[in-house]
Design goal:
The protein is of the alpha+beta class. It is about 40% helix and about 15% strand. Strands 1-4-2-3 form a four-stranded mixed β-sheet. The relative contact order is 0.17.
Length: about 160
């Protein structure tokens, strides 16, 4: 309730600004923190991400194997899957999550990018966990035993 003294001091202008702001928030859905970051991380924030796989990495069988092996580690988290990726690729990831009872959500927002650098699978927490390394390739480096190539000695090196 506004009194005459508030109107003299500009209280009426502040009250109408507040009403206009509320109407605008209702019509547009309110303000959102870090909208660019939310677009990149499928509606979540970077600080909540436990593990990330880009769309370009999804087709790699080694990534799928690593993801499946560590699926039990994702208990208590939620998976966000990029809905713009084909089902033939995403189906294996959904199956792995289903087998370990990890809840997942297909994100199919128009703002969600689907290029190779975009996020394909995210394992996210409800609250901030602030992990410095989130990409699956950085968290679980390739540990396969690759044969070490022997350097062929030249003719003169074999003599001496």
């Amino acid at each position: 309730m506004l009194y005459y003294s508030q109107i003299e001091r500009g209280g009426l202008a502040m009250a109408t600004d507040d009403v206009n702001q509320r109407i605008e928030d209702s019509a547009l859905g309110g303000r959102q923190t870090k909208p660019d970051e939310r677009r990149q991380y499928m509606g979540s924030l970077r600080e909540r991400v436990f593990l990330a796989i880009t769309v370009g990495q999804l087709a790699d069988p080694a990534i799928l194997t690593t993801f499946t092996q560590h699926c039990a580690d994702y208990q208590g988290y939620t998976a966000l899957l990029n809905g713009k990726v084909s089902n033939s690729i995403m189906g294996d990831y959904m199956k792995a999550l289903n087998n370990k009872n990890v809840p997942f959500t297909l994100v199919n927002d128009p703002d969600t990018p689907a290029d190779a650098a975009a996020m394909g699978v995210l394992i996210v927490a409800k609250d901030a966990i602030n992990r410095s390394v989130i990409n699956i390739k950085d968290l679980f480096p390739d540990t396969t035993n690759k044969p070490i190539e022997k350097k062929h000695k030249g003719f003169f090196e074999s003599l001496f």
